[in-house]
Design goal:
Helices cover 7% and strands 48% of the residues. The protein is mainly β. The two termini are 31 Å apart. The longest helix is centred in the middle third of the chain and has 10 residues. A five-stranded mixed β-barrel has the order 1-3-4-7-5. A two-stranded antiparallel sheet has the order 8-9. It has one domain: OB fold (Dihydrolipoamide Acetyltransferase, E2P). It has one helix and nine strands, in the order ββββαβββββ.
């Protein structure tokens, strides 16, 4: 069995990098996706879903270096379920309402922001085994 998820959105805050006891880099950041639609009765609805993204190894180091709050990114990876619930991580917000967070372990990260926009300076593509930064001419969009 196999699953994958693709997310395109905006980084919510600057990434945080740490190292495992074995010395492997791990970088975490949040990504917001937005959807806007009109209901059948003409009401405009804006919906935002937040994802917590983790990257590993060389990809983690490059993401920590180039991603900034506001950067546009495309993430490809797998959902990581909460061990207690088997689904998204659930908590209670400060105002007492329930909140949920979808956890994603990224296998590929691509920078979508142009130079100078949203903080990142260069587009990037990377996998969990390593990361490579292609020339701008090699980016398919």
């Amino acid at each position: 069995m196999y699953h994958t998820i693709i997310i395109a959105g905006n980084v919510g805050k600057d990434p945080e990098m740490r190292y495992t006891p074995s010395g492997q880099a791990v970088t975490s950041f949040s990504v917001a996706t937005n959807r806007q639609y009109t209901t059948g009765n003409g009401e405009q609805v804006k919906e935002t879903i937040w994802f917590r993204v983790s990257t590993w190894g060389k990809t983690a180091e490059i993401c920590n270096q180039y991603i900034k709050k506001g950067s546009k990114v495309l993430i490809e990876g797998r959902l990581t379920p909460d061990k207690a619930t088997g689904g998204p991580r659930i908590w209670t917000k400060q105002d007492g309402t329930p909140g949920a967070s979808f956890e994603v372990t990224a296998s590929t990260v691509r920078f979508l922001s142009s130079r100078g926009e949203g903080g990142g300076d260069m587009p990037m593509h990377g996998g969990m085994e390593g990361a490579e930064i292609p020339l701008e001419d090699d980016i398919p969009f």
